[in-house]
Amino acid sequence: GDLKDFLLWGGAVPCSSQMLVEYIVNRAxxxxxxxxxxxxxxIRRAHTSLGxxxxxxxxxxxxxxxxxxxxxxxxxxxxxxxxxxxxxxxLINMHGTIxxxxxxxxxxxxxxxxxxxxxxxxxxxxxxxxxxxxxVHLRRSKTDQAGQGRKVAVPYGRTSACPVKAICLWLAEAxxxxxxxxxxxxxxxxxxxxxxxxxxxxxxxKKYARTxxxxxxxxxxxxxxxxxxxxAARAGVSLIKIQEQTGHRSVSMLTRxxxxxxxxxxxxxxxxx
Length: 273
Fold this sequence. Notes:
The chain has 13 helices and five strands. The protein is mainly alpha-helical.
């Protein structure tokens, strides 16, 4: 997606350092320094994978990027997590065929701590039903570019909000036996053969956030993954078990969620006032 934005702007691979500077200056009008820095990674990889010179290493490009960081900062806007209690409230507003799909998508996205790209890329063959729950086979993810794959266990739920039952009900109602798990559904309830897009996941999360009175602009597809981590941390689940579910390669990213989840615990001001 980052490379696509560069190409749509008018960029090319290979590109000169001057072209890259012009792209940075243009996009600085609309995006944060963090977003632009991330897009440079995509452009860099497009060059290095073809054995081309990396234009982002040019001194002029680095100088412009440093200036952008000073003026706009590098703080990333984090999606608000969908907490367990909020998720349960969202389920009440799901009805019909669209509701069955959205229930399955939101519950599985939360329980398996999936990225939105991982959700929409799921095929029926990636889901393995067992006596204990559902095994989700991820063929590739953001941190698994080699495509070695990873398995995520989703046990049967102890409440009516069971992600395993929700998936089974959705597949049965939509009569899906092969191909994409999550697909478009029109207002008449007709199920498409086309899989949902990454953006669709964000729009679905925002839709239900709005129905329970949450500020939709703060939520995105990542809110499901962040919600599992934050809710699990508040419930006292160990860091290792959370990492097993999310597939994070290091605990550094996890600790940020956990720090936010426990920010009021034993707070210095709270112990004094």
